[in-house]
Specification:
globular, Rossmann fold, alpha/beta, 225 residues, three-stranded antiparallel β-sheet, six-stranded mixed β-sheet, 9 strands, 22% strand
Length: 225
């Protein structure tokens, strides 16, 4: 993102934000409530339009980007849809859609990826339950599993530990550790890093819609400090 500016209802939410996320980064976006953290990651993905500036995903503007299987997005909460409530497995399986052809139903590889995602998030035993009847923390784990099932190159997670118990946070940290070791890129919005802190390579801190601080937090730096 270069010169990113977002306005809502006549109010500036992001102002002149410059941010580049490199391959293999594990970036934490920090700041108080209302600082613009969620707006920033949504603007990076083109989910919120910019009033000025530009953003690119793998060199293309979001409107022209087509290779969405490379990006996994974890929103703050499970969207409430109409119709028959989806099971946990069905929601997680929807993370494979970008990898599927309209002419081909789910394959063995798709089913295996969903199984791995459910296991990684501790949801295997809840796979047949209605996702919308779960607790807020369990629903957050469903959203994380959906992103994992898609096997993207980049994970963008908007406060994935909100409402999640300590044990689940530790399990998520372990999952992110494996992703980082495999060279995946992670952008994580958080109030506090908790068990994720050792994995973070960079932080950016927002206040009033502006980046006020950027810090490298690589493991090597901390070991030699």
């Amino acid at each position: 993102m270069s010169g990113g500016l977002v306005r809502r209802d006549g109010r500036t939410v992001l102002a002149g934000v410059d941010l580049r996320v490199g391959s293999g980064d594990v970036l934490a976006v920090l700041g108080p409530n209302g600082a613009g953290k969620s707006t920033l990651v949504k603007a990076l993905l083109g989910l919120i339009p910019l009033a000025a500036g530009r953003t690119e995903i793998y060199g293309a503007p979001p409107a022209r980007f087509r290779d969405w299987k490379r990006v996994g997005y974890v929103p703050q909460r499970l969207p409430m849809g109409g119709g028959v409530p989806a099971t946990v497995r069905e929601v997680v399986a929807s993370g494979r859609v970008a990898r599927q052809s309209r002419w081909r139903p789910g394959s063995a590889a798709d089913r295996a990826a969903v199984d791995r995602a459910l296991e990684a998030t501790g949801l295997t035993g809840l796979a047949r339950d209605s996702a919308h009847l779960l607790s807020g923390g369990q629903q957050q784990r469903v959203l994380i599993a959906r992103a994992l099932a898609g096997e993207p190159d980049v994970f963008v997670m908007d406060e994935p530990t909100a409402g999640v118990d300590v044990g689940s946070q530790a399990a998520l940290a372990e999952t992110l550790r494996d992703l980082a070791a495999a060279g995946r890129t992670v952008v994580l919005v958080a109030h506090e890093l908790g068990p994720m802190e050792p994995l973070i390579t960079r932080t950016v801190e927002l206040e009033h819609g502006r980046i006020v601080r950027e810090t490298p937090l690589g493991t090597a730096e901390r070991k030699t400090a």
